[in-house]
Amino acid sequence: MSGVIRADTVRVAVASNFSATLKKLVAGFEAENNHKVLISSASTGKLYAQIVRGAPFDVFFSADSKRSDLLLKQGIAASSELYATGQLVYIAKGIKKSQCLKYLLSDKKNRMAIANPKIAPYGLAASEVLKHLGLWESYQSRLLMGENILQTYQFIATGNVGAGFIARSIAIASKELDNFCHWQVPVNMYRPIEQKMALIGKADNKLVVQSFRKYIKSSKAKKIILESGYAVE
Q1: What's the CA gap between 91 and 100, in Å, rounded?
Q2: What is the share, in percent, of the chain residues with pLDDT greater than 70?
Q3: Cβ contacts of residue 1 below 8 Å, gap of 6+?
Q4: 88-184 has which fold?
Q5: pLDDT-based confidence at 6, cuts 50/70/90?
Q6: Looking at residue 79, what is its pLDDT?
Q7: Where are the domains of the chain?
Q8: Contacts for 222-225 with beta carbons within 8 Å, 24 or more apart?
């Protein structure tokens, strides 16, 4: 018998907020296994729509629980399980850390970037925070909405707008935000961003997918996820 283990491929769809973290996880997985992981990143809503239309993914890292659970209910996914809980951060350029929340509450003219609440869970969370603070109506005409949380971050980092809500994971990873104040939004201001992983179709029967799932649930992977700005069980 040959001692060579056949290499296989895992096709992964990942919500934009988790793409950088997933690349770190994939590097660790590929270093320990004779397999490859192909990554496609977009908003949760767009990826969900692609999967429903038959896109050939094995694993879906959603930025919420809704779409992952829905795929399971629809019989498209074989499983749906929590892999991380996202955290929301408000940032503003040139503002002192101690003045970050005060600036958000007092700003009456500048534009703000958030992800589109209709397709991006972090955008939905941002809208809930603005409503909680009584600011939703006053910001309506000044919101610049990104298609996903990475595009939202790019609007801010490139200077199109001076403030906005992004994922804590992106704030931690970005050196471009050194001149920004960071206000980590209290979790009681928005519904938990429970991010779930779904195994699509018969992917759960593939040994390579099960190996990948096992790695994502390992203590080594959880450490990477935690250090990247997420809460983990």
Answers
A1: 7
A2: 97
A3: none
A4: D-Maltodextrin-Binding Protein; domain 2 (3.40.190)
A5: low
A6: 95
A7: 9-85+193-227, 88-184
A8: 224/21, 224/24, 224/25, 224/28, 225/21, 225/25, 225/83, 225/84
